[in-house]
Design a protein that fits this description.
By secondary structure, this protein is of the alpha/beta class. The chain is built from seven helices and nine strands, in the order H-H-E-H-E-H-E-E-E-E-H-E-H-E-H-E.
Length: about 220
């Protein structure tokens, strides 16, 4: 899956993965991280997620990274902000455009171009739509890069979907609890907080032919 796939999805407004309301699992389980209010939280592949506003409202500084400039512009416009801009030359490494307003800062560019310097103040990560957005061959690369660039002891609230992959073509892709364990066990303590049957609450996935769908909520703590 190439970068052009996601850029085209945003261009064509094919963004069924976007949630208009705050994610209920974020609101329910974020307290498990026990963060100070001024902690910096990283949201990879953030799109225009309103969850960044919820995190900001908890007193956190939010750092997102998003490939699509359309998504970045939409986030600030739809939430009534006129962000400050910094060019690629002004942002460390010269690979990202930066937009910032009211303690939400988004780097527009490729996640895999991020280095440690961008995330040196990050204490926690919120991943609802990153791991499940990637096909199998990219997920391992994503995890390897993420754990390299994050500071030690960073906590990650991870939400994944699990369903019979043969019944539906992703994204979102099915990522099993055992796959998460395999990806992260060498790098982090893995705690499965909840495993919830959600198919009955997702008619659009029933229409696509799914017979089972579970959402898994993990708390990961890097070593």
């Amino acid at each position: 899956m190439k970068k052009e796939f996601w850029l085209e999805r945003w261009k064509r407004e094919q963004t069924g993965f976007h949630q208009d309301d705050f994610n209920p699992y974020l609101r329910q389980y974020w307290q498990e991280l026990q963060l100070a209010r001024d902690s910096e939280v990283f949201v990879p592949l953030c799109g225009k997620s309103r969850d960044m506003l919820w995190l900001r409202d908890q007193g956190h500084r939010v750092l997102g990274v998003e490939l699509s400039a359309i998504a970045v512009q939409a986030f600030f416009r739809e939430n009534g902000y006129t962000p400050q801009h910094a060019s690629q030359q002004q942002v460390a490494g010269g690979k990202f455009e930066q937009c910032e307003a009211d303690d939400v800062r988004i780097l527009c560019g490729d996640f895999f171009d991020l280095g440690k310097a961008y995330l040196e103040k990050v204490i926690a990560v919120y991943d609802r739509a990153s791991l499940i957005a990637l096909p199998p061959e990219m997920r391992e690369r994503y995890v390897r890069h993420l754990v390299i660039i994050l500071p030690p002891t960073t906590q990650i609230l991870l939400i994944t979907l699990e369903y019979p992959q043969t019944e539906m073509q992703g994204p979102p892709f099915s990522v099993s609890a055992s796959e998460v364990e395999a990806f992260y066990r060498e790098h982090a303590k893995v705690c499965l907080l909840a495993q919830l049957d959600v198919l009955a609450h997702n008619p659009r996935f029933q229409q696509r032919g799914l017979t089972r769908m579970v959402e898994n909520i993990f708390l990961l703590t890097l070593r």
